[in-house]
Amino acid sequence: MKQVTIHFDKIDQFPNALAIKFQGFLMNCLDEDYVDYLHEQATNPYATKLYHQDEETIWSVSLLNEEAERQILPVLLNLSEVTLHHQESLEIKKITLQELTTGHLLEIFNENDTDNVFTLYFQTPTGFKSQGDYVIFPSMRLIFQSLMQKYERLVNEGYEIEEDTLDYLAEHCQIISYRLETSSFKLHGRGIPSFKGRLTFRIRGAQTLKSYAHMLLTFGEFSGVGIKTSLGMGGLRVETREN
Amino acid sequence: MKQVTIHFDKIDQFPNALAIKFQGFLMNCLDEDYVDYLHEQATNPYATKLYHQDEETIWSVSLLNEEAERQILPVLLNLSEVTLHHQESLEIKKITLQELTTGHLLEIFNENDTDNVFTLYFQTPTGFKSQGDYVIFPSMRLIFQSLMQKYERLVNEGYEIEEDTLDYLAEHCQIISYRLETSSFKLHGRGIPSFKGRLTFRIRGAQTLKSYAHMLLTFGEFSGVGIKTSLGMGGLRVETREN
Fold first, then answer.
1. Count of A–B CB contacts within 8 Å?
2. Is A137's CB within 8 Å of B137's CB?
């Protein structure tokens, strides 16, 4: 899979609103049949995130399977500007490309890495649904459930996750610190309950468990976590350390 | 019950450390037999909180039953300075006294108040224990469980809370926004897992339910919420509005 990161001079609009406009722009650039196909997917094979950083606005698009790479990568790499609906063209300053292969993910899974403390930065509004309701506090179970689902559907092309594995993983994680606040992701005039901030947790247990978590979280930096990751929600950055 | 609030010029030390020193100072001012009695109580009939605000340090002591008022109030009202262990005397700038009667609490309970949105400010590190473990995310159930327990033990002099009432109350509250972060309350060299910040929730349902919650939270501004409120944890301020 690939992550294309596009840098602009800082755009004076809220990231939430921009993320949705950029996603609309992207859909307009793609083949219509493929856009129709995307609309039918339970788990989108791409994710976007948009945020301001220092004097830049950064838009990042992850292509999570081969077909998404084939359809979307050439379009993104050939962009020289972005024209949003009813707005001036935005000049692209820089495009960077990052690759994450399933081979690299397997390497992480097989590594004897001793890092067992993970800090998750929820870079964009992040939300979960559980039993039909929005959840505005993260839990280790919801985080890993979402990552396992995305991983299974997009990488393994399976459709079911192993609930026992999820339970075991969640039970061995302990949240040790956080700084979080609610936010509301506006979409079609509705606000989707969500949160932003950071969360640090420690995993205790077998090496395999730590490596599996590390692999899922590395994938998560591409896939995002939770709901509506194609529209710009759930942007994730991960730091690891030993403890 | 009474709340004595004592103002100092800002003291250049962490509120956590100061709170424990001030509590030690208070115990030294009291009758020894009464201090022994306090040590035996499951629920302390007093609570303290200490925080910096603008150019002041504010120490607040709540006396939650008549005996605590009798034993502690004269001591506090006669203070002109506070001398902490191995430190210079701290001059008191102002003392204010606030009263909350059970009559006033009953008035709140009987009022046809339409406020149903409550914002809780956790002014000092706040923590809960559930099934032996520290809990670092607040939940409406833990908040009201703690307030109901303190209220029952100190005001009603009963010892059991009605679990059904607690469940019903918690189920009708919905957290709508928060900004929270973990903190660690240092005590005897250990850090007690806790959090600080604010949380806003809405109650839906019968007038009685809103009034009961309002009454408990008004009491909570005196009693504090959660564990170790006598040592300065769980300091609570509440704002209400209609929605």
1. 28
2. yes
Residues B229-239, mean pLDDT to the nearest whole number: 97
Q: Which of B137, B176, B181 sits opposite A179 (nearest CB)?
A: B181
Q: Of the given ranges (A38-42, B62-66, B156-160), which has the lowest mean pLDDT?
A: B156-160
Q: Tell me which residues of chain A have a C-beta less than 8 Å from any C-beta of chain B.
A: 136-137, 175-182
Partner residue facing B136 (CB), from A175, A181, A182: A175
Which residue in B235, B208, B48, B225 sits closest to B141, CA to CA? B225
Sorting pLDDT into bands at 50, 70 and 90, what band is A113? confident
ipTM comes to 0.90
Exposure string of B76-112, with b = 16+ CB inside 10 Å and e = fewer, is beeeeebebeeeeebebeeeeeeebeeeebeebbeee
Phi, psi of A55 (to 5 degrees): -95, 15
Would the pLDDT of A173 be above 90? yes
Reported confidence tier of residue B42, pLDDT bands at 50, 70, 90: confident
Question: What pLDDT score does A111 carry?
Answer: 87
Tell me A156's DSSP state.
Answer: I
Contact A85, A22 (CB under 8 A): no
The DSSP code for A154 is I
Candidates A70, A72, A78, A58; CA nearest to A28 is: A72
**CA-based nearest distance A177→chain B, Å:** 5
Question: pTM of the full predicted structure?
Answer: 0.92
Mutate to test the interface with B, among A179, A185, A195, A201 (most CBs of B within 10 A): A179
CB pair distance less than 8 Å for B136 and A180: no
* Yes or no, beta carbons of B177 and A176 under 8 Å apart: no
pLDDT of residue A193 exceeding 80, the answer is yes
CA distance linking residue A1 with residue A64, whole number of Å: 5
